[in-house]
């Protein structure tokens, strides 16, 4: 991703991230490197026997998972096409 892509993600998810996680997204979002998932994982204290995704879901629900996927540049599930749908509808 480019610096502009990372800045766009920061601007898009800044308020939602703060609302859900009660901490600024800028703590883990770097313009050049993007979202530091490792540092976020350390902060959220994911137990060794569970995935980060499951841990986020258990504490913050699906909205928390979708926000983290979003800042990683993965399309939120509401934007995914479903089976049988054309991408360019």
Explain what this protein looks like in three dimensions:
With 89 residues, this protein is mainly α. The chain has one domain (3-76). It is 53% helix and 4% strand. The chain contains 3 helices and 2 strands. The protein has helices at 3-21, 37-44, 52-71, and strands spanning 29-30, 34-35. The chain has a two-stranded antiparallel sheet with strand order 1-2. Strand 1 (29-30) and strand 2 form a beta hairpin. Helix 1 crosses helix 3. The chain is globular and about 35 Å long. The model is unreliable at 79-89 (pLDDT under 50).
Blueprint of the fold:
Blueprint: H1 3-21, E1 29-30, E2 34-35, H2 37-44, H3 52-71
Antiparallel strand pairs: 1-2
Helix pairs in contact: 1-3
Secondary-structure content class: mainly alpha
* Average predicted confidence as pLDDT: 86
The major pleated sheet works out as:
2 strands, antiparallel
Percent range of helical residues: 40-55%
Q: How does the overall form come out from the CA principal axes?
A: globular
Spatial gap, N to C terminus: 26 Å
Query: Which stretches are low in confidence, meaning pLDDT under 50 for 5 or more residues running?
Result: 79-89
Percent range for β-strand residues: under 5%
- Total domain count: 1
Could you tell me the radius of gyration in angstroms?
14 Å
According to DSSP, the number of beta strands is: 2
Element order: H for helix, E for strand: HEEHH
Q: How are the strands of the largest sheet arranged? A: 1-2
Number of helices: 3
């Amino acid at each position: 991703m480019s610096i502009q892509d990372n800045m766009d993600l920061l601007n898009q998810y800044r308020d939602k991230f703060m609302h859900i996680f009660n901490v600024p997204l800028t703590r883990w979002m770097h313009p050049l490197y993007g979202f530091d998932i490792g540092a976020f994982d350390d902060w959220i204290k994911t137990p060794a026997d569970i995935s980060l995704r499951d841990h986020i879901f258990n504490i913050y629900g699906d909205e928390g998972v979708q926000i983290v996927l979003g800042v990683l540049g993965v399309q939120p599930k509401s934007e995914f096409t479903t089976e049988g749908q054309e991408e360019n509808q």
